[in-house]
Amino acid sequence: MADSGLHLRHPGSLRALPGGSAAFPQAARYRTPGAREWGTLVVMSPASPSPEPESGPPVRPATGRRARAVPALDIGRLDDVRPGALLVAMPALTDPTFAGTVVYVLDHSDNGTLGVVLGRPSQVEIRDVLPGWCDLAVAPGVFHVGGPCEADTALCLAVASGPVAEDDSPLRRVAGTVHLVDLDSDPADLQEELSGLRVFAGYAGWSPGQLAGEVAEGAWACVPGRPDDVLSQASGPELWRAVMGRQTGRLAVLSTAPADPSVN
Q: pLDDT tens across 122-149, in order?
């Protein structure tokens, strides 16, 4: 994959995170389970023959009101996937790694897609691994599990409190006021520029064409993201329902359904 501008650190303490590098190798990719089998023939019952014209009186057409068509569920399109967008797992996605998740998109191109899972706090304190950054992190001050790829690496997202001059800056803009942070920089230089940050262990990645197939299968909804999604204290099903609940139409109705159908 081409350089996406990700600033990754490899502190050894992250190997203590659940699902570390042994469980999720660097080349990990994920697909919705249950590949379809095409070409199965389905035997259909023959249609009843139409009555002969002479077999009875003509039938008057129905004059009642037609039932209103149920609008299709709009889950967005692949064209809606861009940095700053959210991929929200649909109930049809039962892969335990991603069921009920909300993924913040960092990069999307012909080379693939990168993002981080939001709202999955771990037990690893930031102060124990990256002590210089703990004072800028919003509560809870722990690493969040960003995905199965390179799970022993650290990746930082921050929300800027004002305009950022990116020339020679440790901040790289993702979308709006959300920036990637170079964790090799001095956090003291950013105290006046940031309103808060989150540190993630690992990230989520799709190879070329993979996400397109999953979106086509209805595994993900693509919706607009907000900077406060990155810093939200909501996690798990609470975050999933909050994002779904602010959508329109039938997608908002899904906010009352279980984020992960396996727990229903």
A: 999 999 999 999 999 999 999 999 999 9
Provide the CB-side half-sphere exposure for 52 (13 A, CA).
2
Query: Is 57 inside any structural domain?
Result: no
Determine, yes or no, domain membership for 60: no
Residue whose tokens read 């390179």? 150
The boundaries of the domain holding residue 176 are: 12-26+72-234
Does an H or E element contain 106, and which? strand 102-109
**Using CA of residue 135, residue 149, residue 86, residue 239, what is the dihedral sign?**
negative
Is residue 126 assigned to a domain?
yes
Alpha-carbon dihedral angle through residues 19, 230, 191, 143, given to the nearest 10 degrees: -10
Q: What is the pLDDT of residues 24-56, one digit of tens each?
A: 333 333 333 333 222 222 233 333 333 444 444
> Per-residue pLDDT for 18 more than 70?
no
Q: For residue 16, give the CATH number of its domain.
A: 3.40.1740.10
Are 218 and 228 in contact, with CB atoms under 8 Å apart?
A: no
Question: What is the Cα–Cα distance from 2 to 88, expressed in whole angstroms?
Answer: 25
Domain count, the chain: 1
Q: Is residue 262 part of a domain?
A: no
Produce one character per residue of 130-167: b if its CB has 16 or more CB atoms within 10 Å, e if not: beebbebbbeebbbbbbbbbbbbbbbbbbbbeeebeee
Distance of CA 77 to the CA centre of its chain: 14
